[in-house]
Amino acid sequence: MNDSTVGTLRPKKNQILTLWMRNQLADGSLRDDLMSNDDLRAQSVELLDCLFDTLTDDTLTMPDAPSLSPLIDQLTNISMSRARQGFTPRETGLYVFSLKDALLEMLRHERKDDPNLLLTETMRISKFIDSLGIVTFESFIQGREEVILRQTDEMTEIATPVVQIWDGILAMPLIGTLDSSRALVVMENLLQEIVRTGSGIAILDISGVPTVDSMVAQHLIKTVNATRLMGAECIISGIRAEIAQTIVHLGIDLSHVVTKATMASALKHAFGTLRIEVNKSAARSV
Amino acid sequence: MERIPILKMGQFLLVTIQVDLYDRLALDLEADLVGQITQLNARGVLIDISAVSIVDSFMGRILSNIASMARILDAVTVVVGMQPAVAITLVELGLSLTGVYTALNVEKGLDLLRIKTGAAQAVSTDADSSDD
Q1: What is the pLDDT of residue B1?
Q2: Which pLDDT belongs to residue A27?
Q3: Nearest by CB to B102, which of A195, A199, A228?
Q4: Among residues A75, A202, A219, B30, which is most buried (max CB within 10 A)?
Q5: Chain B residues near residue A187 by CB distance under 8 angstroms
Q6: Do A115 and A177 belong to one domain?
Q7: Could you write out the three-class secondary structure of A125-182?
Q8: pLDDT at B127
Q9: Most confident of the ranges A39-43, A132-136, A199-203, B118-122
Q10: A230 and B104: CB-CB below 8 Å?
Q11: How far apart are CA B65 and CA B7, in angstroms?
């Protein structure tokens, strides 16, 4: 009789895989919409191969052992990719814990004559898989956090576009609430574009900003002042009636800032400043 | 001793700051510039700070002072080529340099000086082709 836990289980790899797959497939929360059964099987085979390649009786009690790092890496990758694919934490956790069931079932079968040994080995395997479970959760959360960070970055990118609408005229439509960090991004982007294009006029359109409080107004005034320091003029457009009311009620002084109700009138003002005339052509040339 | 050169261009004085201003240098520049305005009877001062990447409240005050002094001496001051980072710093410091005219580059700054001093005809001897 083989005394080694891992040595006993290793030859039964295929049976363990069958058990594991059965456990996974039997689970009601299986997400075959996110991952096909074939892919799931391939992933499980790979993980199981890696497990038996790296695991020895010694490392079974030391989940931090360096020799186990390929296994941990693989588990981290699986967990992260699941986080990105949109699996729930529960599904990801069950994936690892269902392996425990498979291993223990196989062990019970092998050690049915020796209950004491069975108990010790069960404890060890249980502890080992638990630590794998913790790794899984850590990397799952990390994967999710990466998704959130990326989305935040994307939102900041999307929310602050600077467009050149005429030679020498830039427009920046602002959408969404302006907080301090976003206001700084807005200011930096606008100033950089002014330098890059050498534009003399920038139109800041706030029709997409839901509310203007004193903080937001402060940020807007700072942006206007910075633009002026660079040697360009900044027009604020898209001020809705409610926002005009709020600004006056809050006692915010916008008297030294050129403000316009619509982007169109801001553009007209810009044309006037740059002495540009736009005319409808008399006859349409074909 | 290091000094910032002041160039005379017709009725205007041109200062290009190529180094980061430390306090002594800035004070010397202020004194030199005001001296030159009176001596040469200059109508405008153009300060190009496009190479300046670091600015503090002292530098902001010096610029503001120069503009105020020049105004007393009947000269217009235009600051040109301010870097975005410098502009943001000045605004965050609460210095918006009111009373100082600004322009994107030297060319636009000179145009602005000519308009502000009403000396367009007197200075621009060569016809520059502006496309507006």
Answers
A1: 64
A2: 73
A3: A228
A4: A202
A5: 88
A6: no
A7: HHHHHHHHHHHHHHHHHHHHHHHHHHHHHHHHHHHCCCEEEECCEEEEEEECCCCHHH
A8: 44
A9: A199-203
A10: yes
A11: 20
Q: Where are the domains of chain B?
A: 6-119
**CATH number of the domain bearing residue A14:** 1.10.490
Instruction: Please give the structure tokens belonging to residue A207.
Output: 């029709």
* A204-236: pLDDT as tens digits: 999 888 888 888 888 899 999 999 999 999 999
pLDDT tens-digit readout, A162-185 = 999 999 999 999 888 888 888 888
State whether B87 and A227 contact (CB < 8 Å): yes
Helix, strand, coil percent content, chain B, rounded in steps of 5? 45, 15, 40
Which residue range(s) make up the domain with A134? 5-152
Comparing CB atoms, the residue among B90, B91, B105 nearest residue A198 is B105
pLDDT of residue A5: 78
First to last CA, chain A: 95
> How high is the ipTM of this complex?
0.75
A225 in contact with B at a CB cutoff of 8 Å?
yes
CA separation for the pair A189, A282 (Å, rounded) = 39
User: Do A204 and A246 have their domain in common?
Assistant: yes
Task: Domain B6-119: state its class.
Answer: alpha beta
